[in-house]
Automatic annotation (TrEMBL):
InterPro entries (UniProt xref): DUF6536 (IPR046623)
Keyword match tRNA-binding: no
DUF6536 domain residues: 22-174
Record Pfam families: DUF6536 (PF20163)
This protein's name: DUF6536 domain-containing protein
Origin superkingdom: Eukaryota
TM region positions: 25-48, 133-153, 415-439, 506-529, 622-645, 677-698
């Protein structure tokens, strides 16, 4: 069957190629990279000028503080800008890396002369061996300076949440009344954060917002409360005296390693089991259970001051309710251990002074003279504690009718990290310098794609592959390992797409995919089990309720040893680098398979070459290296996976304020959060994408055309056109069988580039002039070897603009 012939066009080549066209793209990359450098410097200067100076200045500084919704929008907008700039910057860097690793025709000829080959059309570390030390240095610097953009760029600007502690007071329908003694007033202000007179004024001035019980539970049953503070629970108990009863403190400033429910005061009613699980050692007051039993919602409360036993020493004083505050003090370790033992005894509210003295005398203490320095007495002015260890027996329960809530300004922040910004600017500047040096390199005729190689080899055939038209990437090494007589090869069977990819690339890619999936499954299991310890159950519905990238105490990583911003940024973004490497490997596999699919398509239909810089009616290469029906879904899948991964492991920063509205910087939360449901989606989506990729690898190629893949030798072997096929690279090409008959002596002659160079050097004339003078003689000459005798028919397969036939399975070819 003959291939369909396309009509020849009369369009002339607009401008002769210089061989340096790749520098145009590199110059655009230089402009883009320099512009981004300028923008990064400008944004950093603006951020520094707006920064609110603090003790954490070099790690992170605040550039906005206020409304949380506005802070989130600013942060999201900056992250979109950062991702756009990062994508452009990494794309420019990758293009220049390809310019450095793409072999020139001169490189290919030199390597072929030694029976070796280079990779064409795909990034390859193997091509480094033909690079100069300058190219290798620039290439390595471009790789190294890309890492901070993968790992740290997103952490240059981030948002921080705020969490307000709030005092909860149970009051009668008449509200708080000011007439109280000084001891109760002091305890009230210490626990609620405001003096009772101010609360009374807010109550009378209608400054407190009315909330139904349902709204109260939904509003204050939050992990981090940013826009409210003091809460009054209005009950129907008129017996509650002034200034009300202390219920508890919600969302107190805590360390990330602490396991304290921020609203456990809600679940102190008579039937605590219906509100959550309190028997596992973790306080699990559940908002959903509270809403289910909202009509029966009751809480316990106690007076703000009470009688209690006080133990006073030389440098300390404590009760059974507040001794734990001394366990983290600067007291000697032995003293703190003794205080812990004695405080545990005093926790019970039913001991007397005599009981306490008897306990002290009966024990052997670690601290010398510990017993002698203690003074034990009963005090009538001991304040209740934040820890809600009630001294009232039996507990008194008060049903809630509605709530009165204090609204306050939010303190969410948008922050930037000067350290990360400076590192990004430094790496950006290095990239600009590297691209400038890349442009200065005098490298001509770079072969970026398989189409570029075909065009070059057809214009200037390679003598090392003469007569080896059935060489493919699999047997190229064995054929050219050492000199041997030229042999014809029998027609191979049709191959599958996976045959277009080398074994090493498959082994590396499959191994890395398995490692990533196994590690991802292990991390997901760890996150699922870890989060499950703080949940009532581990059903998929409960885990789903945690959401994607939602900062909650249950999802935060604890006991990490360090919570430094840089360390957390590396931890949260390191998976992104792993995903990028996985994408690179899979993309390289797709590139090899699809390039081979297009390569073999020339054996089915006649078409123009697809090259980097078209001449005549040659087609341009795809912008994203892959056909759009593959590149667009591939990029979409990559973007979705990166987004899912960012929702799976994310950075969390929370600034905590006490009941008086004072920032407690010692309790700032800086850690990473995990979303098990987002991890499950990430793994599932990644697994599906890999299954589709490996499914494509099982497709068969349309013909038995030898697979060149990215092997320069195999591509060269298929590019020896017949006699008189001039300017074939500019015409529609097809690969197939041609018949050479009546071979003559003239068919053994050909003008090679090496001969042109030698004649040019000997005669002192430019290579272009020597080549032009000798092109006339090529019309009647063939690139096939001399065949003895007249009228001998030779079957040969190659790319040609002439008519071709389909290779026969039982025929031999040269």
């Amino acid at each position: 069957m003959k291939g369909t012939r396309l009509s020849k066009t009369n369009e002339e080549v607009k401008k002769p190629r210089t061989g340096y066209e790749w520098k145009n793209g590199a110059s655009i990359c230089l402009c883009a990279t320099a512009s981004i450098l300028f923008l990064n410097i400008l944004l950093t200067i603006i951020a520094a000028s707006r920064a609110q100076r603090s003790s954490r200045s070099f790690e992170a500084e605040t550039i906005f503080e206020g409304n949380c919704t506005k802070a989130k929008r600013w942060s999201t907008g900056f992250h979109i800008l950062i991702n756009v700039l990062g994508t452009i910057l990494l794309g420019a860097s990758n293009y220049c890396m390809q310019c450095l690793s793409a072999p020139s025709r001169k490189d290919v000829d030199r390597v072929h002369a030694h029976g070796k080959w280079l990779d064409i059309g795909t990034p390859s570390v193997a091509n480094l061996r033909v690079m100069s030390w300058v190219q290798i240095t620039i290439w390595c610097l471009l790789v190294l300076t890309s890492l901070p953009f993968h790992v740290l760029y997103n952490a240059a600007i981030f948002s921080a949440l705020s969490s307000n502690a709030y005092g909860v007071v149970a009051v009668s329908p008449d509200g708080p009344i000011v007439s109280i003694n000084s001891t109760t007033s002091a305890c009230y202000e210490d626990l609620v954060g405001k003096d009772v007179g101010k609360v009374q004024a807010m109550y009378q001035g209608k400054e407190l917002e009315f909330l139904s019980k349902e709204d109260c539970i939904k509003t204050y049953g939050a992990a981090f409360l940013s826009n409210r503070r003091t809460l009054l629970l209005v009950t129907n108990h008129s017996s509650i005296s002034s200034p009300g009863l202390f219920v508890g403190v919600g969302s107190p400033p805590t360390s990330v390693d602490d396991n304290q429910n921020p609203f456990d005061w809600m679940c102190t009613g008579p039937d605590t089991d219906i509100y959550g699980d309190f028997g596992s050692g973790t306080s699990q007051c559940l908002q959903t259970a509270l809403l289910k039993h909202v009509n029966d919602w009751s809480v316990t409360a106690e007076p703000f001051s009470r009688n209690d036993i006080v133990v006073a020493g030389t440098d300390f004083a404590f009760t059974g309710q507040n001794y734990s505050d001394l366990l983290y003090s600067s007291l000697p370790r032995s003293t703190r251990a003794d205080i812990m033992d004695l405080g545990a005894f005093l926790e019970s509210p039913f001991h007397t002074v005599d009981d306490t003295l008897g306990f002290i005398q009966s024990r052997s203490w670690q601290t010398q003279l510990f017993e002698s320095q203690l003074n034990v007495y009963m005090s009538d002015s001991v304040c209740a504690t934040h820890s809600r260890k009630l001294s009232v027996s039996p507990p008194q329960y008060y049903s809630v009718d509605h709530c009165l809530s204090e609204k306050v300004e939010e303190h969410c922040q948008v922050m930037y990290s000067p350290a990360i910004c400076l590192l990004v600017i430094l790496c950006n500047a290095v990239k600009v310098i590297c691209i400038m040096f890349t442009i200065r390199l005098r490298r001509k005729e770079l072969l970026f794609t398989v189409g570029d190689a075909i065009s070059s080899f057809i214009k200037y055939p390679d003598r090392t592959t003469l007569g080896r038209s059935w060489v493919d990437q699999k047997n190229a090494k064995s054929v050219f390992a050492k000199p041997r007589p030229m042999k014809s090869r029998t027609l191979p069977p049709r191959r599958r797409w996976y045959n277009a990819v080398g074994r090493r690339r498959w082994a590396l890619s499959v191994t890395w995919c398995i490692v990533c999936l196994v590690c991802g499954a292990a991390v997901t299991t760890f996150a699922y089990i870890g989060v499950g310890e703080y949940l009532p159950n581990t059903s998929i519905y409960t885990v789903w309720s945690l959401g994607f990238s939602e900062a909650r105490p249950e999802t935060m990583l604890r006991y990490l040893g360090t919570y430094n911003l840089l360390a957390m940024a590396l931890l949260s973004n390191a998976p992104q680098v792993i995903l990028s490497s996985l994408y690179y490997l899979i993309n390289s596999i797709l590139t090899c398979m699809l390039a081979s699919a297009e390569y073999t398509s020339y054996s089915v239909r006649r078409q123009y070459l697809r090259v980097s810089w078209p001449e005549g009616q040659q087609r341009s290469t795809y912008f994203l290296s892959l056909p759009y029906r593959f590149s667009i879904p591939t990029m979409a899948i990559s973007a979705i996976l990166h987004w899912l991964l960012s929702e799976s492991i994310f950075y969390v920063r929370v600034y905590q304020y006490d009941t008086a509205g004072t920032l407690d910087e010692t309790r700032t939360i800086s850690t990473c959060g995990m979303s098990p449901i987002a991890m499950i989606f990430t793994l599932s989506f990644a697994g599906l994408a890999l299954v589709i990729t490996f499914g494509l690898a099982l497709k068969r190629f349309p013909t038995q055309m030898p697979l060149a893949g990215n092997c320069s030798l195999a591509i060269s072997a298929a590019c020896h056109p017949p006699l008189g096929d001039e300017d074939a690279a500019l015409k529609p090409l097809m690969w197939g069988e041609i018949v050479i008959s009546g071979a003559s002596e003239k068919q053994g002659e050909v003008i090679y580039r090496e001969d042109v160079r030698e004649e040019s050097a000997e005669g002192g004339r430019p290579e272009e002039e020597v080549l032009r003078d000798n092109l006339v003689e090529l019309e009647e000459r063939s690139l096939l070897p001399l065949v003895e005798g007249e009228g001998v028919s030779i079957f040969h397969c190659c790319f040609t603009s002439r008519e071709v036939g389909v290779p026969h399975p039982m025929r031999l070819y040269v």
